[in-house]
Amino acid sequence: MEANDPDEDIVIIGAGLTGLSLACWLEELSSRNGQAMPRVRLLEPRTTYDNDRTWCFWDREDHPFRQLITHRWPQWQVSAGKTRVVQSSPRTSYALLPADALYRHALHRIEACPALTLQQGVNVETINEGENIIQVITDTVEVRAHAVVDTRPPANLPETTTTGFWQVFTGMEIHCPDHGYEVTTARLMDFQPCDDYPCFVYLLPKDEHHLLVEWTAFQPQRYNQDCEAKLESWLASEGIKDYRVLREESSMLPMIPISSERRSGRVIKAGVGAGWMRAATGYHFATCQRCSMMLAQQILAAKASNRWHLQPPTARSYWLEWMDRVFLRALRRHPDKASEWFLALFSATTGAQMSRFMNDQPCLRDAMAIASALPPGPFLKAALV
Ligand SMILES: Cc1cc2nc3c(=O)[nH]c(=O)nc-3n(C[C@H](O)[C@H](O)[C@H](O)COP(=O)(O)OP(=O)(O)OC[C@H]3O[C@@H](n4cnc5c(N)ncnc54)[C@H](O)[C@@H]3O)c2cc1C
Predict the structure, then answer these.
(1) Which ligand 1 atom is the nearest neighbour of the CA of 286?
(2) 214 and 232, same structural domain?
(3) Could you tell me the distance, in angstroms and rounded to a whole number, from the CA of residue 292 to the centre of ligand 1?
(4) pLDDT tens digits along 246-303
(5) What is the pTM of this model?
(6) ∠ CA 189-192-194 to the nearest 5 degrees?
(7) Residue of 44, 278, 287 to mutate, ligand 1, most atoms within 8 A of C-beta
(8) Local confidence band at 1 (pLDDT 50, 70, 90 cut-offs)
(9) Whether residue 238 is found in the same domain as residue 297
C-alpha cells in the first residue's frame, strides 16, 4: 500500500439514525443505479442497540425504511381544554417507526454489503485533515479515508438557553385495555395548564388497547425534573389506572437554532449536529432521510470521479430557518401564548400544508398561511430582535 492510500473511501462517525440512514441510502442507490459502491466504515461507541426511541413523521416521501412503519394515523390534532383542531390530508399520514426495527434492518443491510463495515465499541477522539487523506483517531484504532461524515451530536450546547428551549419529555408505551381514544387520530399537542413554560401531552393510540403517551415541556433549562410524575398524574386524571408499562423513553432535545452546516470539504457534519433537526419542532426523521439521500448521491458521484470534496446537503431554506428563529424568539417572550398560537397555526392551514411545513418542505404559499395565522405584534417585534 502506498503511503497515501486510505483504508476506506469514507468514514462515517456515529451509527445512529443519520449514520445508518446514510449507509442504507448508499447501498440502495448504488444497487438501484448500478453505481460503484464506495468502501465505507462506520465508527460507533455503542456495542448494542436498544429500542430506545420511536420516530414519528409525516409519511410523504420514500426512503429505505418505509416498509418498517408500524402505525399510521390519517388524522392529527392539536388541542387545549375543549378546543381542538383536527387535520388530515388525502396522501399523507402521521407515521411511527420503532427504533429497534430500523436498527435491525440497517445492521442486517450493512452485514450483507461487503463494502460497508460497522465497527462498534470505538470512540472517535480526533480528526486530522491532510490534503488528500483524513486520519480519524479513535481510542483503539486509526482509520484513513478520502472523506469523513461526522454525525456526532452537537457539543457545547448551553445548559440554559436564551435563544430557544430544551424540549424535555418522558413517555411510555402502555397496555391499557379499551382506553377509548380514537385510534385514527394522533394527538400531537394537548396543552396542559402550566406555571411558566408550555407543556403538553402527546398521545398516540396504537390500537384499542395500547397507547404511546408522553409529557413534554418546552423550557429554558436542560433538566427533567418531574415529567414522569406529571404524566402519571395526567393519566390518573383521565381515569387511566389499570395499565402495564411496556417501554419507556425520555430525552432532552435542543430547540436551539443550530445553523445548517454549509461548509464544504473532505470532512462534513451531518445529523443533529449539522442542524438537520428542526429547532422549532424537534422533528428530524424526514429531513434526515432527504439529506442522507442527497449526501449518498454525492458520495457515489465522488467515488466515480475520485473527487472527494463534499457539499453538505441543504436541510431547509434560509427563509424557513429565519421564520423558525422568529417563532422561537416570540415564544420565549410569550410562553403563555403557546396553545393559542399553535391552535391558530393548525386552524389556518390545511393538513397538506402543515405536513409539508413540518417536514421542512413548505412552499411560499404554505409559509404565508402560517405567517398570517400569527398575531403581527409579537412576531414583528421578534423579527426585529
Ligand atoms: C427519545 C427520542 C425520541 C425522538 N423522537 C423523534 C420523532 O418522533 N421524530 C423525529 O423526527 N425525531 C425524533 N427524535 C429526534 C432525532 O430524530 C433523534 O435524536 C435522532 O436519533 C438523531 O439522529 P442523529 O443520527 O443525528 O443522532 P444519533 O441517533 O444520536 O446518532 C449519533 C451517533 O453518534 C455516536 N457518537 C457519539 N459520540 C461519538 C464518538 N466520540 N465517536 C463515534 N460516534 C459517536 C452516538 O453513539 C450515536 O450513535 C427523537 C429523539 C429521541 C432521543
Answers:
(1) 11
(2) yes
(3) 14
(4) 999 999 999 998 876 778 999 999 999 999 999 999 999 999 999 999 999 999 999 9
(5) 0.97
(6) 130
(7) 44
(8) very low
(9) no
- 132 and 30 within one domain: yes
Burial class of residue 24 (count of CB atoms within 10 Å of its CB; 0-12, 13-18, 19+): buried
Q: Are residues 218 and 176 in the same domain?
A: yes
Question: Of 211, 239, 254, which closes a domain?
Answer: 254
State the distance from the centre of ligand 1 to the C-alpha of 16, rounded, in angstroms.
5
Angle between helix 17-33 and helix 99-112 axes, rounded to 10 deg: 50
Question: Looking at the structure, do residues 249 and 267 belong to the same domain, yes or no?
Answer: no
Quick check: is 66 in a domain?
Answer: no
Q: What's the domain range around 226?
A: 165-254
Number of structural domains found in the chain:
3
CA of 14 to the centre of ligand 1 (A): 9
| Alpha helices (H) in the chain, listed in sequence order | 17-33, 99-112, 227-237, 285-305, 318-333, 338-347, 351-358, 364-373, 376-383
Looking at the structure, tell me whether residues 133 and 39 fall in a common domain. Answer: yes
The mean pLDDT of the chain is 95
pLDDT value of position 385 = 81
Asked if residue 205 and residue 182 are part of one domain, the reply reads: yes
Residues 145 and 261 grouped into a single domain: yes
Q: Name the residue with the closest Cα to ligand 1, atom 37.
A: 152
- Residue % of the chain over a pLDDT of 90: 93
311 occurs within a structural domain: no
Q: Can you tell me the mean pLDDT for 162-179?
A: 96
Residue to substitute in 11, 18, 100 for testing ligand 1 pocket (most ligand atoms within 8 angstroms of CB): 18
- Would you list the DSSP string of 5-41? --SEEEEEE--SHHHHHHHHHHHHHHHHHTPPPPPEE
CATH classification at residue 102? 3.50.50.60
Residue 326 to residue 383: CA distance in whole angstroms: 5
Amino acid, res. 366: D
Of 246, 271, 305, which marks where a domain is finished? 305
Q: What number of other Cβ atoms are within 10 A of residue 236's Cβ?
A: 10
